[in-house]
Amino acid sequence: MMKALPLSKVYQLLEPGPVVLLTTAREGRPNVMAMSWHMMMEFEPPLVGCIVSNANHSFTALKKTGEAVIAIPPAEFAPKVVEIGNCSGRDLDKFTTLGLAMKPAKLVAAPLLPDCFANLECRVADARLVTRYGLFVLEVIQAWIDPARRASKTLHHRGFGTFAVDGDLIHLASGKP
């Protein structure tokens, strides 16, 4: 039997993909935030839509610099992801306080996160919906992956401290190699 669900819980059903970490750098100061509201928008060039609230410290850096890194952490990085999401770069240096490793990116000022199995250097491609919805469209301009950790499981936010880890892979004919 179907039962009404409070509308405030709908987002828990439509989780768009893995939790990612968004790094920015403004005036030489790096920051990182946990983000789960994002979506692929195009394949080539790769475009990623990201929701970043204007209440978030990373919002200003992303809006002013027009660049960021999307880092994809492995599931075992979950405790650190929660720590990142539970504090603000407005109040502290997350890299120092949380002991996060970083390394320079090739094309943007935002740092790469070597503890993540993939890092995507991005530039803002479209900011027309930023004021209304906090939606930045980012173009991936350089992608990095750790081949040794390519099969890492990803972390998926289900709301209020609940996460799922991606499961088994299934392969079905799709007409594409």
Largest beta-sheet details: 7 strands, antiparallel
Whole-number tally of structural domains: 1
Name the average pLDDT: 92
pLDDT < 50 runs, ≥5 residues = none
Distance between the termini: 41 Å
CATH H level: which superfamily?
Answer: Electron Transport, Fmn-binding Protein, Chain A
Largest sheet strand order: 2-1-5-6-7-4-3
Number of strands: 9
Helix content: 10-25%
Figure out the total of helices: 4
- Strand fraction: 35-45%
InterPro entries: Flavin_Rdtase-like_dom, Flavoredoxin, Split_barrel_FMN-bd
Keywords: Flavoprotein
Domain Flavin reductase like: 13-164
Protein name: Flavin reductase
Q: How are the elements arranged and paired?
A:
Layout: E1 20-26, E2 29-35, E3 38-42, E4 47-51, H1 57-65, E5 67-72, H2 78-85, H3 94-98, E6 118-129, H4 130-133, E7 135-145, E8 155-159, E9 162-165
Antiparallel strand pairs: 1-2, 1-5, 3-4, 4-7, 5-6, 6-7, 8-9
Describe this structure in words.
Its cofactor is FMN. Belongs to the flavoredoxin family. This is Flavin reductase. The relative contact order is 0.20. A hairpin with a 4-residue loop joins strand 3 and strand 4 (about 45-50). This protein starts with 19 loop residues before the first strand and ends in a 12-residue tail after the last strand. The radius of gyration is 17 Å and the shape is globular. Strands 2-1-5-6-7-4-3 form a seven-stranded antiparallel beta sheet. It has a two-stranded antiparallel ribbon with strand order 8-9. The chain is about 15% helix and about 35% strand. The chain has one domain (about 15-165): Pnp Oxidase, Chain A (Roll), CATH 2.30.110.10. The model has no long low-confidence stretch (mean pLDDT about 90). The chain is an alpha+beta fold and about 180 residues long.
